[in-house]
Every structure is written in structure tokens, then in C-alpha cells.
Amino acid sequence: MNRAFDWKFWAGLVISAAFLYLALARVDLPRLWEIIRSADPLLLLAASVVVLIQYPLRALRWGVLLAPLQTTGFRNRFLATLVGFAANCVLPARLGEFIRANYLGASEDLSGSSALGTVVVERLFEGLTLLAVL
Residues 6 or more apart from 38 whose CB is under 8 A from it? Predict the structure, then answer.
């Protein structure tokens, strides 16, 4: 279908622009730019690398948790992880975890509840690990 007539595309664009405006309406942009410029570029780069490395590692770990159920492809796990964490950025109550499980279930012909169960186990282990570190 031609993009000019794709109402979903245009509706998404308008909604995104409206929420972007609402998110930035009260932000002092010159002050924000000043804070960004004052940041240490090496620390910013290091933080970016750590954030980017965590996603493939999470996908690998998820593969270990899914192994008893079904062998899944790394690419699908990785994409599901990215989609889920992106959804967590915009949806309340960690709903991105449900989206992540559903995405993998649909792309791997896996039960969504099985995928969600592994996400719950993963989150429990993360919580226990955090408690142990604290």
C-alpha cells in the first residue's frame, strides 16, 4: 500500500509527535544542552557500550532458560529483547515483558505462556542477584 494512504503510519506519526511535545514542553532545552555538553564523553561512551552489550547478553541468557522448552534462534530472542525493553520505556508496569514473551512466542512458534514463564524466572533471578549484591 502507498505510504501516503497508510493511515496507521500517519496516526503513529501524529501520536508520536504529540507525546514528544508533551514530554519536552516543560524542559529547559538550553539548560539540557548545557548539561549534555558538560558530560564526560568517555564516561558517556562507556555507559553506552555497557547498555548496548547488555541486550545480546540478555538474549543469550534467555536462550539458556528456554533450552529445556525449545531451541530458539538468537536473532529472534535478541529482537524480542529489544522490542520488550523499548516497550518498557513507553508502557507502564513493565508491560514490555509481556510483549517480549509474546513476540518470541509468535516468531518461534512457542507458547506465549511458556515464554512468559521464562521471563518471570529471569526476573526472579535478577532480583535475587540484586539482593545478594546489596
Answer: none
